Structure formats: structure tokens, C-alpha cells
Amino acid sequence: MTLIERVAPALEPVDISDLSTSLGVSTWPPFAEEIVEFAAQFSRRLARRAGPVPELQALAYWMRRSAVARLARDYKSLESPGLLMVPRGLVFHVPPANVDTMFVYSWMLSALLGNRNIVRLPSKSTPATTVLIEVLRSLLDEPQHDSVRATNVFVRYGHEREVTSALSAACDLRVIWGGNATVTAIRESSLPPHASDLTFPDRLSFALIKTVAYARLRSEVRDELATQFFNDSFWFDQLGCSSPRVLVWVGEPPAGEATDFYKRLLRSVQAKGYSVDTATALSKIAYAHRSVLDHGVTRVTAPANELTVLELGDPILESGDYSGAGTFLNAWVSSLNDLVPQITRKHQTAAHYGFRDRELRDFAVALNGRGIDRFVPFGEALQFGRVWDGRDLLQEMSRRVVIQGQP
Amino acid sequence: MSVADLLERPQYSILQAEKDVLLLGEMRRLTDHHRCASPEYDSILRALGTEKQAASIAEVPYLPVSLFKTHLLRSVPEEQVFKTLTSSGTTGQAVSRITLDRPTADLQTRALATIMTTLLGPRRLPMIIIDTPNVVRDRRLFSARGAGVLGMASFGRKHFYALDDDMDLDVSGLERFLMENKGQELLIFGFTFMAWKYLLEKLRVIEVDLSQATLIHSGGWKRLTDQSVTNSKFKEAFERHTGLTRVHDFYGMVEQVGGVFLEASDGFLRAPNFADVLVRDPLTWRVQANGEPGVIQVVSALPTSYPGHSLLTEDLGVIHGIEASAKRWRGKRIEVIGRVPKAELRGCSDTHAAQVGQ
User: Fold this and answer.
1) DSSP characters over B220-239
2) Chain B contacts of A292, Cβ < 8 Å?
3) pTM of the model
């Protein structure tokens, strides 16, 4: 008998061999009233509790009633008279250690689709996870959420392979977020023959800005843009998979534009009160030095501990062992197509400003799947969506049943 | 004035103002030398915009000490490499690699010798080493600890290793050693934590007289501060239980040859003639006023074979003023507070992997 900690519903040790069976075998219909209501209440309660934490506010906003209703409509549109969408069954989620809100996105989407869920919480608790778990637990305690409680469990355990293996052996779909090493380690535990993995390994993101478009902007709009870029890059200390690390100026070489933009970004950083501790400042200094030798950085500018700008000699979309927390590799290319050879599978999000849809589309067509899964405007880099890392989660977390009538 | 002169002149005898001038000359010479000899070093300084010569020690560019963990930087051709030093580090952690040529290695030996003879006199003393003999014998154990012991062993004779492999004190061996060397000056060396945990903790219950000894210890206070053992408590306990009054901590790192800072009689560390400590404000990176804590930068005139003459450490410290009047122990009164506390950063891919990997 191996006991692990159940975090929600109600904190208590549970036996892993009972865990998956305790959730029963039945699934709920997709977007069942109970779970939709749960999401709406979760959203409301979280919005109240979240205070000024933007990541929690963003999560609450993502699962508000109208957003879930839109998701349900999107889901319906995937069906047709000859194609029915049904739940996968039992989904085992392994969220990342440090994007503390991720486990809710992964779980909520799966639960809305009718699946039973086991969520392994990161072993390290952050203030944000503490709030999330408190809200989650209080909701699950309420009698009106009996059905949600009966089919979902949140656990916390060390890195015992035995536990991961037992949970893997019981699931129909395993969702692994986190670094490449995590994916590889979890994959050592095998799945039932019919089950599959949905993996989200290490990714790298960057931003594209058209020099002439920026040059044309009025001062207030430039400030607004800098604030949006602040939100993209400084949440999660710039270490999220979607956080831009490289800023590429496209078209004309930026003369004063880059300097102007970073000056405004720094003001935004200061206005938001973002600050780094000494250890982080040291790690940024060390990264800046390494980047000269590893990435051909030709100029290091650090007007404050919170902002380090590293001028790349060549537009390399690589960051190596990256320090985050306000570290920007700055580059220039004369056209988007110059970036094509640099793009690989590892590139996820390109936050953009100043491009026409057509230009982005042509670029994506030129890439033809080499990499980049998302082109989103400045300010939306971290916004989670149902299509992630090139896959539609509504589809990945469902099965399709073909219903072909008699001719 | 050359490095040789700084080594020759009595250690800790130079007034700070004179030392600043002498060291600045050495720092300029070394910065120019490394720019010519190491393209990597030069490209870093160019990227940092360091063009003009430093007008003061504070203006001398520094490298973060961790750079030696990821990059092998040297200012000598490969065929002149005499040995490569490596730092300690727990399993899985990157270690620093420091390239020494023959002249730099010789300077290192002379530097340590001049520091130790200043403290211990010219004669080698019977020596107790607070460690197991296998720390220097067993290749698998050979580490910075072993290197530290070997480095110090040359300042003593009749070495007695006081611990066994289980870190148990060889009490009868110790008593025999003290009997044989009765009435003589002794030298004791060990790591700070081991001196406390494996020597002193045992000597609380056994009667031994170490009043003739000088204890030199190193390795940092982290594990002792966790048990709220301060330097003064450490010294007080040694005096009470063993009569030992001459206790000297020292601070240094493998990444900087010559940067060896020894505790003076007032309880603060001092820099030798050829090295110094600066403390920087962790927000502005300007040199802090005396009395204000900050991040320690170490400078040394010795590293010629690799660009390690000016390094930003990951330690916090304070300068408690400058000793000018006394004949001995002149210079900055340095206190090392300890490691900069670890950062708590987020992000989606790093820490989990590190844990899973175990």
C-alpha cells in the first residue's frame, strides 16, 4: 500500500491503488450543467480572492461563464451529424512545477469535456497555488458540487516512479507539461495500450516588431505597447514557455526606436513595481557575460537590475541557459523571411506588432510547420487558449465517434 | 613595484591609500594583458563598453565568478598549461575550471606561504588536520577539501589526521600526539564546520589542552549559522573547552589565485598585499560605503594565466572601516556574511526537471 497526499477534495492520505478506482468509471456529458456551474463559481470566487495577482485574474477571466459558453459552442461546432464527440475517460495531468496556474487550465478544460481527472500538483507550493487550492477545496466541499468531487482528485507526491506508474497505468490520456526532462522521465512509466500522451515540452518564444510601424507611433501609444510587452514578458519572471526572450526588429534597422522602446519598458517595469532579488540580479549578470561568448552578443546594456538588453550580432533565436527576469536579446532582420532558417520545432509563440495579417500568414506558410505555433499581438503572449502547441485541446481531450446511418 | 615586491613586503603592512595605487597599476596591467591574450575576455569587455583604462580599483571590470563554471577562459597557449584547478561542488553541479601556467602556480604557492608565515612564523609546526587521512589518499574523495588539506599541510610537519572515515575523533591518537609535542607550538587546520562538529563537540567531554595551538579554518559558516553558531561563539567555545585562543578563519575561492583573506586578531578578515575586497551595492553595483553590506568583489594581482584578477562573487560582505594605525593587520576590515540567498524564480520547465532527474 502506498499512501500519497490528497490535496483536494479535503486534505488526507489516500492509497494509490484506490485512487483511480475511487473515481468510478462513468464520465459526464461534455459541458454538463454541474461542471459549467462549477467553472463559473470558481471564476467568481477566484476573481474576488486573486487580488492584484495578474496570473490569477487572467485565469478567472478565462473560465468566466461567457468564456465557457463560447468554448461549448466551439466544441459543438466540431461535431457533425455523422461525428459525435465524447470524453476520453480518465485523464492524468502532470502540470509544470512553476507556472502555478497551469494545472487549472489543463484540468478545467478536461473536466468540462466530461473526463474524470487525477491532477498531480507541483511539489512546491507558491502563494498562487495556495490560493487556487483553497478556492478549489472550498468549492468541492459544497454539496452542490458532489458530482465534480466524485470524479476529480488533486494529489501531491514526491517523484516516486511507483506512483506515477500506477496512475499512468490507469489513465486513458496523460497530459505532461513541463521541461523535456520531465516528459522523458514521466514517459518511463508506461500507459495502457489504448492510451496516449499529450506532451508540452520545452519551448522558446520571441517577439516581432516592425520598425517603421513603431516609428510612426505617438508617445502614448508607445507607452501602451511597452506595458503590453511588460505583461507578456515579466509575468512568470519571463520563464514561461510563451514569454518572449528575443525581440526582433523587422524591416528598417532600428536607429533610436529600440532604445526608445526599452526606455519605456523600463518605466513600465518601475511603474508596476517589478523587482528582482540579488541572486536573480547576479544570475542575469552571469547570463549577460555568457551570452557574449555563446550567442555573439555585441553590446550589454543594463540600466537597472530589472532590465538587461543584449544586442545580438546575428539574429539567433536561441537563449541557452536563460536567466529571465527582464533579459532581452535584441536583434534585427530586414524581412520576416530572413528568420525562416532560424525557426525550429522548439519555437512556440511569436508576439507581434505592426504587421498585416497577410504578412504573418505568408510567413507561417513559408515556415510550413518548421516551428511557431502561435502568432499573437503584443499583450497576449501568455493568454492560454484551446489550441496550444499546435494541438486543439478540445479535440485531444475527446474521442470522436463516427455515426454512419444506413444508406 | 611589481607582484614580487607585493609578495616580499611584510604582509598586511601597506596602508590602504598606497595599496590602492599599487593594486590599480597591477589591475591595469592585467586587464590589458588578458584583453590581448584572451579573445573571449576581450569580446566581453567590448560588449560591456569597457574602453578606457580604469581610473580606480572600483572601475576595474569584473567577471562573474560563475563564468568559470561554463567557460574555460585562459590567457596562455594550451602547451603552457601547467595544471587545471577545479572547484568543489555537489554531485551534478557544474564545477569551475581554472587554468594555471607554471609562473601563476608558483605565485600561488608563494602567496599562501607568505600569508601563513606571517601568521605562524618561519618554522613548520607539528600539525593536526581535522580530517581523515583518506581525504588526500583516496582519489575518489579527492576534492577541493583534499586540495585544501594538501595546500595547508606544507605549512606543518608530523601531520596527524584526527578523524577516521566515519568522522570520529581518534582520541587516543590525539592524546599521544599532544604528549609527544608537549610544550611546542602547534598548527591545527580544518574546515569550519568539521572543526566545530567533529573536533570541538567531542572535546567538550574530553580534557585536552590546545592552548599552544593556532587553529586555521575555512569553508564558510552556512551550516554553523543554521545552528546559530557565530564566529565569536565558535572562538569562545574553543577557548573554554581547549584553551585555544589563536583562531583564524579564512576566505577564498579556487577561482581567484591569491585572493586569500585571513582573519586578524580583531575578528575581521584582511587582504594580503596583492589582493583586496570591494563590496558593491546590489542595486546600483557601485562600491558601497563602509559599513554597508553588499556583494563581494575580489581582486588579486596574481592571475596571469586566466582572466581572474577581478571577480564578482556570489557572497555578501561588509567592510567595517580601514585599519591604519596598528602596525600589523592594516587594510580593510572585511566581514563575509555568507552566500546571497537563492532566488525563487518561476517558469514552466526548469525545477521540475531537476527533481525528476534524481
Assistant:
1) -SHHHHTTT--HHHHHHHHH
2) 43-44, 47
3) 0.88
Q: What is the pLDDT of residue B324?
A: 80
Q: Answer whether A179 sits within 8 Å of B348, measured CB to CB.
A: yes
Q: How far is CA B187 from CA B116, B153, B192, in A?
A: 11, 10, 15
Q: Which of B70, B314, B353 sits opposite A282 (nearest CB)?
A: B314
B63: contact with A, CB 8 A cutoff:
yes
- Span A146-173, pLDDT tens digits: 889 889 999 988 778 888 898 999 999 9
Domain A3-202+389-402: give its CATH architecture.
3-Layer(aba) Sandwich (3.40)
Q: Is domain B1-73+268-340 classified as CATH 2.30.38.10?
A: yes
- Higher-confidence residue of B80 and B90: namely B80
A204-387 has CATH 3.40.718.10 classification: no
ipTM score here?
Answer: 0.89
pLDDT digits (tens, 9 = 90+) for A223-244: 999 999 999 999 888 988 899 9
Chain B nearest C-alpha distance from A268 (Å): 18
Angle at which helix A33-50 crosses helix A54-62, to 10 degrees, equals 160
Could you tell me which residues are beta bridge partners of residue A347?
Answer: A204
- In A201-306, the DSSP E strands lie at 204-210, 244-250, 297-304
Q: Using CA atoms, how far apart are residues B354 and A254, in angstroms rounded to an integer? A: 39
Residues B14-32: tens digit of each pLDDT: 889 999 999 999 999 999 9
Q: What is the pLDDT of residues B129-178, one digit of tens each?
A: 998 888 777 655 556 677 778 888 889 999 999 998 888 999 889 999 99
Residue A362: count of CB within 10 angstroms of its CB: 14
Task: Confirm or reject contact between B51 and chain A (CB < 8 A).
Answer: no
Q: Do A325 and B49 touch (CB under 8 A)?
A: no
Give the distance from residue A135's alpha carbon to the nearest chain B alpha carbon, in angstroms.
Answer: 22
- Any CB–CB contact under 8 A between B66 and chain A? yes
pLDDT band at B350 (very low <50, low <70, confident <90, very high): very low
Burial B268-279 (b: 16+ CB within 10 A, else e): bbbbbbbbbbbb
Q: Where are the domains of chain A?
A: 3-202+389-402, 204-387
Residues 275-314 of B with CB under 8 A from A: 282-283, 295, 312, 314
CB contact under 8 A, B348 and A237: no
**Gap between the Cα atoms of A115 and A55, Å rounded:** 25
B127's enclosing H/E stretch is strand B125-130
Chain-centroid distance, C-alpha B91: 22
